[in-house]
Each structure stands twice: as structure tokens, then as C-alpha cells.
Amino acid sequence: MPDIAPLLEFLARSQLARAMAGSADLREAAAATHLFGTLMLVGAVLPLNLRLIGFWRSAPLADLARVLGQTAFVGLLLALASGIALMSTRPMAIAGDPAFQAKAVLLAALAVNALLLRLVPAWRLLDQVDSRGTISRFRLAGVLSLVLWGGVLALMRWPGLI
Q1: Does pLDDT of 26 surpass 80?
Q2: For residues 37 and 161, what is the distance between their CA atoms, to the nearest angstrom?
Q3: Do the Cβ atoms of 15 and 70 come closer than 8 Å?
């Protein structure tokens, strides 16, 4: 596993860390942005995952994936940027917290799941075929994503990370 201590030390000494440490309003804004980004992200992936599992078969998967995927991506960017800002005030303590480490593992598993789904030939052909059905790989990706996101959301409320 790579040593991320230099990156964490850089974050702790950054202008961002000084600004966050010096302003309760900035910390509150970052926390609100983190929550909003997470809500956007999870709010988009929830219906997409349910569709992958087999709900709402009358809705073309290609259309849902396009709109919800873009929404999820914007939410991801907001959550990631604000999460880094929040972490900057005490990066070593947060990175050392077992709950944060578990959350990071779950997020990495979610990224791998999403990447593997996009490598499925049927996913790349969604615009060219009637995508009102579902295939077992889609169902597996949807169920796995729902379970992993449940874990991430539970860990977001972990006392050491709030």
C-alpha cells in the first residue's frame, strides 16, 4: 500500500487547511456542500441501481443512465472537493480512523463496480439496443452498488468522522 503521509502532510500545511481552520462559516459551508454532493450522488445512483436490478423496465436504461450518470458525476465532484476541504483540518487523524479507512475501501469498491459495469459490452451498446430488459451483470452491479452505498452512508455518520 502506498505511503500517503506526505500527501496528508501537504494537505495539513495547505492554504486550504489554514482557511478551513480559521473560519467556522467555511467549515459549515464545506459540510453542507459535502452533504448536498452526497445527496446528489446517492439520489442519482439509487434509481439507476433499482433500474439495473429490474425495476421500471418501461424506462429505457440508456436515457436514465445518461441523465442520472451526469447528475451522479456532479455530486461526486462536489462531495470529493468538499470532503478534501473538511479533511484538511485534521488529515492525519481522519486518515487513521478505521471508519474512514473502511469508507475509502467501500468507495474504491464502488468505483471498481462502476468501471466493470461500463466494460460490459451490453452497457456500451445501450443507445443501439432496446434496453428495457436487464441482464444478470446489470443486476449484480445494481445490488452491489446499493449494498456498498448503504455502508458508505452509515460510515458518514460515524462519530469520529463528523
Answers
A1: yes
A2: 17
A3: no
Amino acid (1-letter code) at residue 77: L
Q: What is the pLDDT of residues 96-143, one digit of tens each?
A: 999 999 999 999 999 999 999 989 888 888 777 666 666 888 899 999
Residue type at position 123: W
pLDDT score recorded for residue 159: 65
Phi (first) and psi of residue 90, to 5 degrees:
-155, 65
pTM (two decimals): 0.85
Contacts of 135 (CB under 8 A, 6+ apart): 120, 122
Question: Phi and psi for 77 in degrees, rounded to 5?
Answer: -60, -45
Residue 84, all three cell numbers: 478534501
Buried/exposed 45-82: b ≥16 CB within 10 Å, e otherwise:
bbebbebbbeeeeeebbbebbeebeebbeebbebbeeb
